[in-house]
């Protein structure tokens, strides 16, 4: 369940990062670029983050991929330095990611306990 919930959050993030990269790029064309970066930098950075999200989704069957997911959440939150609205977006997705990790792990543990109880008749789940 945790893998399913995590993949849903990361998939929605792909769309949001794409749109955010376009917004930051559009705004940087008027201002000359945030932090003195070239105007194409937001598009390139957005593409790299999207690539990271796409690559992470099938890797969620491995435990270490969840650490990568957390790193991507931090990166999304840090994008608020380029556009302050991204602090809100990053916080929302970080909260959803944390919620999915907690609830998904709880559901997985309950399913494992129920499966173990079915395998051993007479033993109650913990």
Describe what you observe in this structure.
There is one protein chain. The chain is mostly helical and 126 residues long. 79% of the residues lie in helices and 0% in strands. It contains four helices and no strands. The radius of gyration is 19 Å and the shape is elongated. The model has no long low-confidence stretch (mean pLDDT 87).
Shape: elongated
Helix content: over 70%
Q: How many E strands?
A: 0
On the 0 to 100 scale, the average pLDDT is 87
Q: Per DSSP, what share of the residues sits in E-state strands of 2 or more residues?
A: under 5%
Number of DSSP helical runs:
4
Structural class comes to mainly alpha
| Secondary-structure element series | HHHH
Which regions have little confidence, pLDDT < 50, spanning 5+ residues?
A: none
Distance between the termini: 19 Å
For the CA atoms, what is the radius of gyration?
19 Å
At a glance:
Helix content is 79%, strand content 0%. The chain is mainly α.
Secondary structure elements and pairings:
Layout: H1 2-31, H2 41-59, H3 64-78, H4 85-119
Helix pairs in contact: 1-2, 1-4, 2-3, 3-4
Q: Which structural traits does this protein have?
A:
single chain; mainly alpha; 126 residues
């Amino acid at each position: 369940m945790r893998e399913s919930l995590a993949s849903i959050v990361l998939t929605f993030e792909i769309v949001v990062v794409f749109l955010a990269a376009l917004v930051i790029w559009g705004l940087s064309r008027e201002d000359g670029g945030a932090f003195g970066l070239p105007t194409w930098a937001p598009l390139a950075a957005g593409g790299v983050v999207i690539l990271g999200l796409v690559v992470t989704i099938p890797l969620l069957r491995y435990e270490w991929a969840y650490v990568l997911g957390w790193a991507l959440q931090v990166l999304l939150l840090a994008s608020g330095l380029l556009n302050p609205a991204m602090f809100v977006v990053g916080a929302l997705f970080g909260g959803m990611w944390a919620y999915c990790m907690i609830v998904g792990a709880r559901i997985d543990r309950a399913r494992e306990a129920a499966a173990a109880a079915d395998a051993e008749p007479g033993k109650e789940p913990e």
